[in-house]
Protein backbone atom coordinates (compact mmCIF):
# COMPACT_ATOMS: atom_id res chain seq x y z
CA UNK A 1 0.00 0.00 0.00
CA UNK A 2 0.93 3.66 0.01
CA UNK A 3 2.68 5.34 2.89
CA UNK A 4 0.66 8.23 4.26
CA UNK A 5 0.95 11.29 2.05
CA UNK A 6 2.24 9.41 -0.99
CA UNK A 7 -1.13 8.78 -2.59
CA UNK A 8 -2.52 11.56 -4.74
CA UNK A 9 -5.81 12.81 -3.38
CA UNK A 10 -8.02 14.10 -6.17
CA UNK A 11 -10.59 16.72 -5.29
CA UNK A 12 -12.73 17.71 -8.30
CA UNK A 13 -12.89 21.35 -7.19
CA UNK A 14 -9.07 21.58 -7.37
CA UNK A 15 -8.68 20.11 -10.87
CA UNK A 16 -7.79 22.23 -13.91
CA UNK A 17 -10.64 22.47 -16.41
CA UNK A 18 -8.66 20.34 -18.88
CA UNK A 19 -8.43 17.45 -16.41
CA UNK A 20 -11.94 17.62 -14.97
CA UNK A 21 -14.18 15.69 -17.37
CA UNK A 22 -14.00 11.90 -16.85
CA UNK A 23 -11.93 12.30 -13.65
CA UNK A 24 -12.91 10.49 -10.45
CA UNK A 25 -12.28 11.99 -7.00
CA UNK A 26 -10.68 10.29 -4.02
CA UNK A 27 -14.20 9.58 -2.71
CA UNK A 28 -15.11 7.68 -5.91
CA UNK A 29 -17.49 10.39 -7.21
CA UNK A 30 -17.23 11.57 -10.80
CA UNK A 31 -16.02 15.10 -11.51
CA UNK A 32 -18.11 17.29 -13.78
CA UNK A 33 -17.14 20.41 -15.73
CA UNK A 34 -19.64 23.26 -15.58
CA UNK A 35 -19.75 26.54 -17.45
CA UNK A 36 -21.06 29.75 -15.95
CA UNK A 37 -21.45 33.02 -17.79
CA UNK A 38 -20.40 35.86 -15.53
CA UNK A 39 -22.16 39.20 -15.46
CA UNK A 40 -19.72 40.78 -17.92
CA UNK A 41 -20.38 37.95 -20.40
CA UNK A 42 -17.09 36.10 -19.82
CA UNK A 43 -17.39 32.34 -19.51
CA UNK A 44 -16.04 30.67 -16.43
CA UNK A 45 -15.45 26.93 -16.12
CA UNK A 46 -15.61 25.16 -12.79
CA UNK A 47 -14.93 21.56 -11.90
CA UNK A 48 -17.16 20.13 -9.21
CA UNK A 49 -18.02 16.80 -7.60
CA UNK A 50 -21.15 15.12 -8.97
CA UNK A 51 -23.36 12.61 -7.17
CA UNK A 52 -22.44 9.93 -9.72
CA UNK A 53 -20.27 7.16 -8.32
CA UNK A 54 -17.63 5.45 -10.42
CA UNK A 55 -17.47 1.68 -10.24
CA UNK A 56 -14.49 0.59 -8.09
CA UNK A 57 -12.45 3.62 -9.22
CA UNK A 58 -10.97 6.43 -7.15
CA UNK A 59 -8.33 9.13 -7.71
CA UNK A 60 -8.45 8.89 -11.48
CA UNK A 61 -7.76 11.46 -14.18
CA UNK A 62 -8.53 10.00 -17.59
CA UNK A 63 -5.52 9.57 -19.89
CA UNK A 64 -5.17 11.48 -23.16
CA UNK A 65 -5.01 8.12 -24.96
CA UNK A 66 -8.43 7.12 -23.67
CA UNK A 67 -9.97 10.51 -24.40
CA UNK A 68 -8.73 10.15 -27.99
CA UNK A 69 -9.50 6.42 -28.49
CA UNK A 70 -13.00 6.78 -27.07
CA UNK A 71 -13.84 9.79 -29.25
CA UNK A 72 -14.29 12.15 -26.31
CA UNK A 73 -13.32 15.74 -25.59
CA UNK A 74 -11.41 17.10 -22.63
CA UNK A 75 -13.82 19.98 -22.23
CA UNK A 76 -17.04 17.94 -22.15
CA UNK A 77 -19.57 19.76 -20.00
CA UNK A 78 -21.79 17.87 -17.57
CA UNK A 79 -22.59 14.17 -17.58
CA UNK A 80 -25.53 13.25 -19.75
CA UNK A 81 -26.73 10.38 -21.89
CA UNK A 82 -27.19 12.93 -24.71
CA UNK A 83 -23.51 12.39 -25.55
CA UNK A 84 -24.45 8.86 -26.65
CA UNK A 85 -26.28 10.48 -29.57
CA UNK A 86 -23.09 12.03 -30.93
CA UNK A 87 -22.58 10.58 -34.43
CA UNK A 88 -19.80 8.00 -34.47
CA UNK A 89 -19.37 7.91 -30.68
CA UNK A 90 -20.43 4.26 -30.38
CA UNK A 91 -17.85 3.29 -32.98
CA UNK A 92 -15.14 4.85 -30.81
CA UNK A 93 -16.53 3.50 -27.52
CA UNK A 94 -16.76 -0.03 -28.92
CA UNK A 95 -13.30 -0.01 -30.48
CA UNK A 96 -10.80 -2.34 -28.77
CA UNK A 97 -8.53 0.64 -27.99
CA UNK A 98 -11.35 2.14 -25.90
CA UNK A 99 -13.54 -0.76 -24.75
CA UNK A 100 -10.67 -2.98 -23.61
CA UNK A 101 -8.29 -0.32 -22.34
CA UNK A 102 -10.39 2.41 -20.72
CA UNK A 103 -12.49 0.93 -17.90
CA UNK A 104 -13.37 4.33 -16.47
CA UNK A 105 -14.96 5.59 -19.71
CA UNK A 106 -16.66 2.24 -20.39
CA UNK A 107 -18.14 2.20 -16.85
CA UNK A 108 -19.52 5.72 -17.30
CA UNK A 109 -21.12 5.03 -20.69
CA UNK A 110 -22.30 1.56 -19.65
CA UNK A 111 -24.29 3.22 -16.85
CA UNK A 112 -25.50 6.13 -18.99
CA UNK A 113 -26.75 3.69 -21.64
CA UNK A 114 -28.35 1.43 -19.00
CA UNK A 115 -30.19 4.46 -17.64
CA UNK A 116 -31.80 4.77 -21.07
CA UNK A 117 -32.63 1.05 -21.22
CA UNK A 118 -29.84 0.26 -23.69
CA UNK A 119 -27.10 -2.32 -23.14
CA UNK A 120 -23.67 -1.03 -24.17
CA UNK A 121 -22.26 -4.59 -24.72
CA UNK A 122 -25.24 -5.37 -27.01
CA UNK A 123 -24.77 -2.07 -28.78
CA UNK A 124 -21.12 -2.96 -29.36
CA UNK A 125 -22.05 -6.46 -30.54
CA UNK A 126 -24.44 -4.85 -33.04
CA UNK A 127 -21.59 -2.57 -34.07
CA UNK A 128 -19.30 -5.53 -34.75
CA UNK A 129 -22.07 -7.34 -36.61
CA UNK A 130 -22.33 -4.42 -39.02
CA UNK A 131 -18.64 -4.64 -39.76
CA UNK A 132 -17.16 -1.55 -41.37
CA UNK A 133 -20.40 0.12 -42.42
CA UNK A 134 -20.92 3.59 -41.05
CA UNK A 135 -22.97 3.64 -37.86
CA UNK A 136 -24.03 7.22 -37.73
CA UNK A 137 -27.46 6.08 -38.90
CA UNK A 138 -27.76 3.87 -35.83
CA UNK A 139 -28.35 6.63 -33.42
CA UNK A 140 -30.17 9.44 -35.13
CA UNK A 141 -29.95 12.54 -33.02
CA UNK A 142 -33.16 13.82 -34.58
CA UNK A 143 -35.50 11.04 -33.47
CA UNK A 144 -33.02 9.28 -31.25
CA UNK A 145 -33.98 5.82 -32.47
CA UNK A 146 -31.61 2.94 -32.15
CA UNK A 147 -32.15 0.02 -34.50
CA UNK A 148 -30.68 -3.25 -33.33
CA UNK A 149 -29.87 -6.09 -35.78
CA UNK A 150 -32.12 -9.12 -36.08
CA UNK A 151 -35.79 -8.49 -35.47
CA UNK A 152 -36.09 -4.75 -35.59
CA UNK A 153 -36.48 -3.35 -32.14
CA UNK A 154 -36.73 0.38 -31.77
CA UNK A 155 -35.60 1.71 -28.44
CA UNK A 156 -36.21 5.36 -27.81
CA UNK A 157 -33.52 7.41 -26.17
CA UNK A 158 -34.92 9.80 -23.65
CA UNK A 159 -33.26 13.10 -23.08
CA UNK A 160 -31.49 12.69 -19.75
CA UNK A 161 -33.88 13.81 -17.00
CA UNK A 162 -32.64 16.46 -14.63
CA UNK A 163 -33.28 14.09 -11.74
CA UNK A 164 -33.68 10.31 -11.88
CA UNK A 165 -37.29 9.17 -12.24
CA UNK A 166 -38.79 8.00 -8.93
CA UNK A 167 -40.03 4.41 -9.20
CA UNK A 168 -43.70 4.00 -8.38
CA UNK A 169 -44.16 2.79 -4.84
CA UNK A 170 -46.43 -0.23 -4.35
CA UNK A 171 -49.41 0.58 -2.09
CA UNK A 172 -48.70 -0.34 1.55
CA UNK A 173 -50.11 -3.73 2.51
CA UNK A 174 -52.98 -3.31 4.96
CA UNK A 175 -53.99 -6.12 7.24
CA UNK A 176 -57.73 -5.79 7.72
CA UNK A 177 -57.98 -8.49 10.38
CA UNK A 178 -55.67 -10.86 12.15
CA UNK A 179 -57.81 -13.90 11.40
CA UNK A 180 -56.99 -15.94 8.34
CA UNK A 181 -60.63 -16.47 7.39
CA UNK A 182 -61.26 -15.33 3.82
CA UNK A 183 -63.63 -12.41 3.30
CA UNK A 184 -67.19 -13.68 2.83
CA UNK A 185 -68.12 -13.49 -0.85
CA UNK A 186 -71.59 -12.10 -1.45
CA UNK A 187 -73.35 -14.26 -4.00
CA UNK A 188 -74.22 -12.58 -7.30
CA UNK A 189 -77.94 -11.88 -7.60
CA UNK A 190 -79.57 -14.29 -10.03
CA UNK A 191 -82.01 -12.76 -12.45
Automatic annotation (TrEMBL):
Comp. bias (Pro residues): 162-172
Annotated signal sequence range: none
Residue numbers spanned by region Disordered: 161-191
Top-level taxonomic group: Eukaryota
Name under which the protein is recorded: PAR1 protein
